[in-house]
Amino acid sequence: MSRYETDLSGVLARLCADVLKDLAHRYSESLRARRLAPSTVAVYLRATTHFARWLVLAKGRTAPPFRERDVTHFLANHLSTCQCGPPAPRSMFTCRAALRHFVSILDDGELFLADRREPLSPVQHEIQLFDNHLLTVCGASEQTRIHRTRYVTEFLTHVFGRGAVRYDELSPEHLGGFLLARAKCCRPGTAGVIAGGLRSYLRFLQFRGLGRDGLVDAVPRVARWRLASLPAHLREEDLRRFLHSFERRSARGRRDYAMALCLSVFGLRAGEVAALHLDDIDWHTGTATVRPGKTSHGRTLPLTPQVGEAIASYLRCRPQSKSAAVFLHIGVRSGDPIAASTVRSAMRLAYRRAWFPDARTGTHLLRHTAATRLVTSGASIKEVADVLGHASIDSTGIYAKVDLPRLRGVAMSWPGVAR
């Protein structure tokens, strides 16, 4: 028996002797079923034992049902001032993860009582209506809805607080003042997104016949010369260094390497990589179908040998799962489909391993790299737009500036300077 397994037995014995004795083995088996390492299971059991003993000492709770507010109070208040003796993990990240797993095995109403939710505030109710409009009428993607509802919530709370949303009181001064204050602490691109969200909400009010006329035009334009610089991308040697940072002998390394190629060769967005399904890949025709994402329409791309071999290598060690998603969690939540955040996290770690500057951490850098490589290899702007899935070719026009050899051929001579 390994040291970790011996430690695990001791921790489980302590948990069995505690207030959670009837749930200890069930909880332990649940953690093992998720294919967590014995060391991680031991740490989670210690964190849960810490919570159980706190329940007895601070709350006098000696039996289920457990309450959501107890979990919240333990994490938010007790950990920061904890004086409990060892072993008592105090890491917010560790304890939150352990208790999230613990709560997942409890039955609502019998072993776990969720807190009674407060009624929605007027602003929250308004945001629900706006979000439903974005989804059902505008067909906006999830990320677009998240950004727009976030900034509109900030705006309405800034104007009305927790009071009623009075549409007729919205004024150009409210719009200008809010956007000016927000623009002071963000980049021009983010300020432009905030302004776009406000315009979208004001058009929603017009759609409902509410608010004052002309307010959409009162949202200030954010000065941003998007064509003034070259799109950031990786040079060929940097891209090779980035791809070589993946350790391809493990299942996780093969998965992350395949995702990196989807980003840097196909030019996919992080959400599009996470949304790939097994039946989206046609091995007979050598194509991959990208599901509708930001632009609400999909596209079919040729499966290059490099990308195809990387995906096939990963699929050979892919976790067993009922999910049809190509890319799955490995380790914690093994077999569950990943989200776009998992793709971004894997790429950030790869940037760090390749010793890239902290400023270069985004998945869109790889998308720009894919587009730049296409243009410099002779692809037309229309072909690049089709690969990237741009709804408008104007979005792709920025990449015309990276093809310097062809630009030199059309550039006029500067007066007095020989070409």
Question: In summary, what is this structure?
Answer:
The chain is built from 17 helices and 5 strands. With 419 residues, it is mainly alpha-helical. It has 3 domains: 3-113, no CATH class; 122-218, DNA polymerase, domain 1, CATH 1.10.150; 236-407, hpI Integrase, Chain A (Orthogonal Bundle).
Order of helices and strands: HHHEHHEHHHHHHHEEEHHHHH
* Oligomer designation: single chain
User: How much helix is in the residues?
Assistant: 40-55%
The total of beta strands comes to 5
Class of secondary structure makeup: mainly alpha
CATH topology of the largest domain: the name is: hpI Integrase, Chain A
Query: What is the strand content?
Result: under 5%
Average pLDDT, rounded to a whole number, is 81
Q: If helices are DSSP runs of H or I spanning 4 or more residues, what is the number of helices?
A: 17
- Which parts are unreliable, with pLDDT below 50 for 5 consecutive residues or more? 1-6
The CATH superfamily of the largest domain is known as Intergrase catalytic core
From the spread of the alpha carbons, the general shape counts as: globular
Alpha-carbon Rg, integer: 27 Å
Any guess at the CATH architecture of the largest domain?
Answer: Orthogonal Bundle
Main attributes?
419 residues; mainly alpha; DNA polymerase, domain 1; hpI Integrase, Chain A; three-stranded antiparallel beta sheet; two-stranded parallel ribbon; 17 helices; globular; disordered N terminus
